[in-house]
UniProtKB/TrEMBL annotation:
Catalytic activity: L-glutamyl-[protein] + S-adenosyl-L-methionine = [protein]-L-glutamate 5-O-methyl ester + S-adenosyl-L-homocysteine
Listed name of the protein: protein-glutamate O-methyltransferase
Tagged with keyword S-adenosyl-L-methionine: yes
UniProt xrefs under Pfam families: CheR, CheR_N, PAS, PAS_4
Organism: Azospirillum picis
């Protein structure tokens, strides 16, 4: 059995090679099953039992090539085929092409697989309507190509039967066709602008600088590998922002990055110039504590978050040195404490898992984030993983970049899921293509049936022969129906797999520790996750399909009516909304709600997504911080915030402003030591040097302070240096010790009295 199959494959390959050598037509990129089925149909008509016999028949009857090519190259076409798609082309594409070309620019159009010419002549009428006949003949060139020489010859004559022009609108038929006896001939002036030629889009060089490329229902007959060759050729042929018009069954571009959909339903795409794609991101900066410094609660919290993160973070400063690595990054890339401070290009991580030095330089020059997807990385004794790397600049408060942040996220699971999804989508596309191929064959059969009916009307003598042909066609239709049943079963299986993936995605949403509520276009609840169930006390099944703004929960949903209506109208995310709410246990909580439009592939909002976060503890922390700030600001004790470089005042509280007698604007022009008559700038710098170097945590000294309108007064000064702040700051607290001196003077006078 195996030998018989191998012999059949060899005979079929020899036949295809003979066709290529004899007629120059290369069928090697066509789908083998479709090609073999059509050749067998022709073999049955001429009575050949196998491929070897048909090979001999072709050699003995060269005219058989014409009938064979008509069978294999299904020339199913018509004027304005799929009228809705042509309406979109006329409404959305033609005006954009004319606008881009201006009033005098030349327009180049390419019709691939033009068959008998109906398609390029439809394009000619479309642009002639927009430009006028004179401008059309002066500015437009339409290149129409096909493999079938007989079809091209028919197209050049541009003569069509009444049945073939039935789909042409009446107005266009009268304007662009001439009636001769029982035929219609396309207008001669427009016909001169259509150039027909034989061309193989798989192997021949593409025509370049094309503004509109029409290739309808050709790709579905090609193998997946051949499609991968043809698509880049079509991309190359188009100018930037040029348009590609495919057939209704062709879905190859749904996941191609070379083209972007203009109208996916009508299969109209635009060329996407090949360039790097980058997305913006946030930044995070961490500094090393001083030797004897004491971290604030906020800094310790940031350190804990970064070190407990499942994302690895590395920071490279402006001098190219590695200055930070969190715990996950140290474990992942074996970074030791000795590596901190070393040049980044000396470390293995600079080139493994991928070369990062040039990416860091690119980020520094452009100021934009660079993302590297799914890089393979393996460590000895560990399973290989896929890492997604983001390289982004870090900015200081003055807006200048001072370091570069590298983040490493394990996306192995996402990478595997994407591969599975792509494989499933490719399988589904193959099934659709095979189904469309069968539909095209059915259309061809219908055309043949119509031709047979016309022959029956003209002669009854061929009735018996026609009946035999119809019986043969019925056998093919039964075979096609069986193939359709197999395809339907495969689509059912694909649907079950898609359902399983949807359930998997829903389980992920229910596990996220924030509230996620999805609304449709009429603001009815589609789903919400487990967090929402726990907080509001209603299950997903109870609220699905209910109007969100009418739900009786502890959240004042009516306040969200206007933001929700705005994002459905503008299709852009709204500003976060903070509000108080009550959970199902009666506990008051503070919520922060982010609202975003629910966008599908066509970029139109189909609903809204609400992300609700409990920020109760965060609000309490902010309130406490503001409370401390008010107490210090209103205190009568003098508190100075000093620049550690110039020693000028940066900020003071009200007590200091009142006792010094200067406004804050005036104090910002004065250095602290300028108000100390007993000490100069050099001595003051020596005094605070141990504090600035980290040798001492604080210094306490007594001095004299001058004010604007009062005499100098003695004070005790306590100073601390906060080097971790950005920028670093000196904080001084001054205590007036005038009363203390009076008491000491009184004590001395008492001691001096005679007993």
């Amino acid at each position: 059995m195996t030998n018989t199959t191998d012999d059949s494959d060899s005979d079929f390959s020899n036949l295809i090679r003979h066709i290529q050598e004899s007629r120059g037509i290369d069928f090697r990129g066509y789908k083998r099953t479709s090609l073999e089925r059509r050749i067998r149909r022709r073999m049955e008509e001429v009575g050949s039992e196998d491929f070897t016999a048909y090979h001999a028949f072709l050699e003995a009857h060269p005219q058989e090539f014409v009938d064979l090519l008509n069978t294999v190259l299904i020339n199913v076409t018509s004027f304005f085929r799929d009228g809705d798609a042509w309406s979109v082309l006329k409404r959305d594409v033609v005006p954009r092409v004319l606008e881009r070309k201006g009033p005098t620019g030349q327009i180049r159009i390419w019709s691939v697989g033009c068959a008998s010419g109906e398609e390029p002549y439809s394009l000619a009428m479309l642009f002639a309507e927009a430009l006028g006949t004179t401008d059309f003949c002066r500015r437009v060139k339409i290149y129409a190509t096909d493999l079938d020489d007989a079809a091209l010859n028919t197209a050049r004559h541009a003569t069509y039967a009444p049945r073939e022009v039935e789909t042409v609108p009446e107005a266009l038929l009268e304007r662009y066709f001439e009636r001769t006896n029982n035929h219609y001939v396309f207008q001669r002036d427009l016909r001169k602008c259509v150039i027909f030629g034989r061309h193989n889009v798989v192997s021949d060089a593409p025509i370049s600088r094309i503004d509109l490329l029409v290739c309808r229902n050709l790709l579905i007959y090609l193998e997946a590998d051949t499609q991968g060759v043809v698509l880049p050729r079509l991309h190359y042929a188009l100018v930037n922002d040029g348009f590609l018009f495919l057939g209704k069954a062709e879905t190859q571009l749904a996941r191609s990055r070379m083209f972007e959909a203009v109208d996916l339903k009508s299969r109209i795409f635009t060329k996407v110039p090949q360039e790097w794609r980058r997305s913006p991101g946030g930044s995070l900066s961490l500094a090393t504590d001083p030797a004897n410094g004491r971290a604030t609660q906020h800094a310790r919290l940031l350190e804990s978050i970064i070190d407990s993160s499942s994302t690895g973070y590395l920071t490279v400063n402006a001098d190219g040195q590695l200055v930070f690595a969190n715990s996950y990054a140290r474990r992942l890339f074996d970074i030791e404490e000795a590596d901190i401070g070393r040049p980044f290009h000396d470390l293995t991580i600079s080139y493994r898992p991928t070369e990062l030095r040039s990416r860091i330089e690119e980020v520094r020059n452009s100021g934009r984030l660079v993302r590297i997807e799914h890089q393979p990385f393996s460590r000895p004794g560990a399973e290989p993983v896929r890492l997604t790397i983001e390289v982004s600049p870090l900015y200081s408060r003055d807006g200048k970049a001072f370091a570069t942040l590298l983040s490493f996220t394990d996306t192995s699971r996402v990478f595997l899921l994407q591969q599975e999804i792509e494989a499933a989508q490719e399988s589904l596309e193959t099934t659709i293509e095979e189904l469309q191929s069968s539909n095209e064959e059915l259309e061809t059969t219908n055309e043949e049936l119509q031709s047979t009916n016309e022959e029956l009307e003209t002669t009854n003598e061929e009735l018996q022969s026609t009946n035999e042909e119809l019986e043969t066609m019925n056998e093919e239709l039964r075979s096609t129906n069986e193939e359709l049943e197999v395809a339907n079963e495969e689509m059912r299986r694909q649907g079950e797999e898609a359902g399983e993936y949807r359930r998997y995605s829903e389980s992920i949403l229910r596990s996220i520790d924030v509230g996620i509520i999805v609304l449709d276009g009429s603001l009815k609840v589609q789903s919400w996750n487990r967090w929402s169930e726990n907080i509001w006390g209603l299950r997903n099944e109870e609220v699905a399909g209910e109007a969100f703004l009418e739900l009786d929960i502890g959240l004042p949903v009516q306040r969200l009516r206007r933001p929700l209506q705005d994002i459905l109208t503008t299709q852009t995310p709204a500003e976060p909304v903070d509000m108080e709410a009550m959970d199902r246990r009666g506990r008051r909580i503070d919520c922060r709600i982010r609202l975003s439009p629910l966008l599908y592939e066509n970029k139109h909002a189909r609903g809204a997504v609400l992300i609700i976060e409990d920020v109760t503890e965060r609000a309490r922390t902010d309130t406490f911080t503001n409370y401390l700030g008010r107490i210090i600001g209103e205190s009568l004790n003098e508190v100075y915030f000093i620049d550690p470089t110039t020693f000028r005042f940066h900020l003071v509280n009200r007590g200091a402003e009142a006792k010094l007698g200067y406004s804050l604007d005036a104090l910002r022009q004065i250095a602290l030591h300028d108000l100390m008559p007993d000490i100069d700038a050099g001595a003051f710098g020596d005094l605070v040097a141990p504090l600035l170097s980290g040798e001492k945590a604080e210094i306490v000294f007594e001095t004299t302070i001058e004010s604007a309108s009062n005499p100098p007064r003695p004070v005790e000064m306590c100073m601390q240096h906060f080097a971790r702040e950005e920028p670093p700051i000196l904080v001084a607290i001054a205590h007036d010790i005038t009363e203390r001196q009076h008491l000491r003077a009184e004590d001395e006078s008492v001691d001096a009295r005679p007993t």
